[in-house]
Amino acid sequence: MNNLLIKTVDLSKWYGEVIGLNSFELEISSGITGLIGPNGSGKSTFLNLAIGTIKPKTGHILVMNQNPWMNPKLKSNIGFCPDYDNLSDEATGREFLELVGGLHGLNGMRLKNRLNEVSEVVGMKDALYRKIGGYSKGMRQRIKLAGSIIHEPKLLLLDEPLSGADPQVRKSLIEVIKSLHNDLGHDIVVSSHVLYEVERLTSKIALIYKGRAIASGEISEIRNLIDEHPHNIIIEGNKISDLAKKLLDMKYTISVGYQEGRKRIKVQVSKPDEFFATITDLITSLDCEIERMYSIDDDLEAVFNYLVEG
Amino acid sequence: METMGNITKILALMKYSIRKILFKKRIVIAFLILLTVIGIMGYAGAQNTNRLNTGSNLLGMLIVMFFMPAICMIYGCSVIRDEIEDKSIVHVFTSPFDRIFAYFSYYLSLVICLCLILAVITSLGFISFFGQQGIDGEAMNIYYTFIGLVFLGVFVYSALFLLTSVVFKRPIYFGLFFVFIWEGFIGNIPGNIQKISISYYLRSIGSKQLEYITVNGATDVNTSLMAIFASIIILILIGSLIFKTKEFT
Amino acid sequence: MGINRIKYRPWNGERSSHLHRVYTISRKIFLQKLKSKGILAILIIGMILVHALPILFGALMAHEELTAEMMVGNSDFMGGYGYLKNGLSIIFVLLLVSVVCSDLIAQDLKDKSFVLYFSRPIKTLDYLTGKMGGAIGVTSILTFVPLIVFCLVMIGTQTGDDYGGSLNVLGKTIIAGILTTIFFVSYGVMISSLTTKKTYAGVGIFMSFFVLTIIGDIFVNFNQNWGLASPTTLLFYSYDMIYGFDLPSDINSSIFGVLLFCILFLPLFVTFVQVYRKETGK
Predict the structure, then answer these.
(1) 3-state DSSP of C109-164
(2) Both A107 and A182 in a single domain?
(3) A103/B247 CB distance under 8 A
(4) Which of A198, A202, A209, C266 is the most buried (most CB within 10 A)?
């Protein structure tokens, strides 16, 4: 059952002349939701509004049906991992987790047990007694994640948790984040501007651009909605001139263009399903030698580019 | 249950804050001040002087009028401001910890550390002077009076500078203006105008306890104490309310 | 491909436009500081509280000529202290220098932006000259300009015709103004070079100055020469020397000379060594 976790209604936030969010409307339900947008699109502003460190200028935001601003009790159900480095280099990982746990009311054996549990989950058990100043980037991200789950929150807000990490660390952090939902049951909102990483985490996304939520839902659903944008397919092979002429006669074809001599064509179609249903017969009837055929629109980047370029 | 939870949170924040105050490099400043006080008072103690008068004047001038407000300024302006600057305060702002209690935790941590630091400075300064000149009942009376003034001063100056650290982005410049210009000049202008400085009330209390401290138009001890306690309460209340409603961007 | 050696030939030519580089650094500092609201506030309040009244008073008061006594005391003007020996003026200058100089070198140390400067053909001396030039420019608005204005006002409103004597005093005042500016700026820049945190530098400038003043004020009771530990006293005695007055008889002139030399040039030396060490990667 999908519960509504975050709901915004006409939410706006600006800092002087800089607009953070502009009439932002979004609903986020349980599961892992990816918040995608370029730098400066309003992702961090949205997350800060959700955790209640800033307040809206107009409109409102509800997190688990409560207003997060000046609502300390709500924060026992939310874990926040900011995008910036806010760790004290002189403290050890253990001291950091003790502080965060203590601020959430944990003490004694309960804190000690929880500390061991979360450090195990994020893979930091052996490094807890080391100073944070000696941690690598990946370790710092892990300890921040540990701090965000130490109080067993229902909802996790992770602001660019993978930024600055090398590919290997990113891979391991993605596994950790997935396990937080799959194994431990946390609902997660994770923001990023790196589209393919979000695709590895979840298929449920919300796209943000210039302070507005421009689309939300499953990646494939969003893609299907954009039927006014033509689908681009590349076909490579020999004797494909006849195929090109034939495709021009089809109703779903918008344009056909040659690339790299006459060994590759780019076909723009309005109805990709019909295209794929008929292309095999066309190829067979014309005796073409097709080496490769692929769509250049089947990823999130294309979806995003369509939505923002419009 | 909620009370126990709040106590746990207060203690956790206090433990962290006290560790930061006492074990950061900034403690070198307190150490240098300690050496300066010992050096000055030790040298003065080696001279043949009117010991009670000189000792009292030195403690007053050096510690109560100068180093005590300066140390309170240096630490008070940085306790919360440093955490805002390096963004480590996000843990407090994103925890289920009422910010008013959090502010009070910071205040308690600051007061405990500063009382400890200034007690050491005052005590060692006292010993370095009177240790050479002779410690008797009169000298101990001076010591107790100044320790009391120092502790009172710590409470009120800490409240003031903690508030400024929440209000201003560069609270240290306000602190410099306040300690060296406001307290130094306004606090010494005869008449009623000096009553808008904290040092006036501290000196008034001192002048009623010791004959060696003279203040023109000193007010009585009860009025001074009331003014100081009222200032502490008002400053903490205002500071905590501002802290509670502060946005963290 | 094999090895394709790049032959390094050290450049032995003349640097050109290095004065322009110094000017660029100074100009940047000057304009940046004047954009700061805090610095503008200190300048305006300082001008009003410290200088406006004496200038006005001087213009209205009947006087034959501008005399040295008016500048450093020994006359009825300014309650016998003279225009220059003003404690409030020292406080404001100190406040200004704390704000202006605190981040001059400290910020570069923190940001490690020496790379920006020393990857260009800039020497340590050029860098320091540029930085201090900017700071001197801002500080002189409070330490030099009002002095000259005061002198010109007094000369312009004098009733006597001994303009030569008045101009002589003006010349000495220019020297006093330069001394005051360099006195404080070199001290402020030294403190800034000793730390990476500009707030520490700002507090350090103030506190060290006051600690020395307190030491001087306390110990002067035991020996008059201890009074020279106070930078304010040292500066005021320097004014006396500039205007042709003698030091008090119980002040040792050798100690005075050494301390004045130290406070003017030792900070510059310390700053140079600090920056040179950072430039060479230590």
Answers:
(1) HHHCCHHHHHCCCCCHHHHHHHHHHHHHHHHHHHHCHHHHHHHHHHHHCCCCCCHH
(2) yes
(3) no
(4) A198
Q: What is the phi/psi pair of residue A250, to 5°?
A: -75, 145
Inter-chain residue contact B176 with C199, CB threshold 8 Å: no
Which domain-ending residue is among A224, A253, A272?
A224
In a 10 Å sphere around its CB, with 0-12 CB exposed, 13-18 middle and 19+ buried, how is residue A78 labelled? Answer: buried
A42 interfacial to chain B (CB closer than 8 Å): no
Q: Residue B244: which of A70, A78, A100 has the nearest Cβ?
A: A70
Tell me the CATH number at A279: 3.30.70.920
Total domain count, chain A: 2
Residues A114 and A187 in one domain: yes
In whole angstroms, give the CA distance from residue C146 to residue C151.
9
Distances (CA, A) of C90 to B180, C46, C72, C188: 12, 10, 14, 14
Q: What mean pLDDT do residues B102-106 have?
A: 97
ipTM of the complex: 0.86
Residues A37 and A126 in one domain: yes
Tens digits of residue pLDDT in A241-285: 889 999 999 999 999 999 877 789 999 988 887 888 888 888 888
Amino acid at A176: V
A254 in the same domain as A161: no
Domain end marker among A180, A206, A224? A224
Q: Beta strand pairing status for A204-209 and A253-259?
A: unpaired
| Whole-number CA gyration radius for chain C | 22
Q: Are residues A158 and A93 in the same domain?
A: yes
To the nearest whole Å, the CA of B177 is away from the closest chain C CA by: 8
Packing angle, helices A137-149 and A108-121, rounded to 10: 140
Yes or no: say if C189 and C275 are a contact pair by the CB < 8 Å rule: no
- For C172, the token pair is 């000495």
Contact between C178 and C144 (Cβ < 8 Å): yes
Tell whether A49 and A126 lie within a shared domain: yes
Which domain does A303 fall in, by range? 227-309
pLDDT at C76: 64
Q: For residue A98, give the chain B residue with the closest CA.
A: B12
Minimal CA separation from C216 to chain B, in Å: 10
How far is residue C129's CA from residue C25's CA, in Å, rounded to a whole number?
9
Same domain, yes or no: A151 and A291: no
Which of A54, A100, A104 has the CB atom closest to B248's CB atom? A54
Residue (of A138, A141, A116) closest to A129 by Cα position: A116
* pLDDT per position as a tens digit, B162-215: 999 999 988 988 898 898 888 887 777 778 888 889 999 999 999 888 877 878
Average pLDDT over residues B57-76: 91
Domain extents in chain B: 2-244
Q: C25-53 pLDDT, tens per residue?
A: 999 999 999 999 889 999 999 999 889 98
SS3 content of chain A, % helix, strand, coil (to 5): 40, 30, 30
CB-count exposure of residue A105 (10 Å: 0-12, 13-18, 19+): buried
Q: How many CB atoms lie within 10 A of CB B208?
A: 17
Helix C18-34 to helix C37-46 angle (10° resolution) is: 80
Establish if B137 touches chain A: CB-CB under 8 angstroms.
no
**A78 φ/ψ angles, rounded to the nearest 5 degrees:** -125, 135
CATH number of residue A41's parent domain: 3.40.50.300
With contacts defined as CB-CB under 8 Å, which chain C residues touch B181?
Answer: 91, 95
Q: Indicate the burial class of B185 (C-beta count within 10 angstroms; 0-12, 13-18, 19 or more).
A: middle
Closest Cα to residue C200, out of B26, B178, B87? Answer: B26
Q: What CA–CA distance (Å, rounded) separates A130 from C33?
A: 42
Query: Is C15's pLDDT higher than 90?
Result: no
Whether A118 and A251 map to the same domain: the answer is no
- Alpha carbon C35 to its chain's center: 20
Let me know how long chain A is: 310
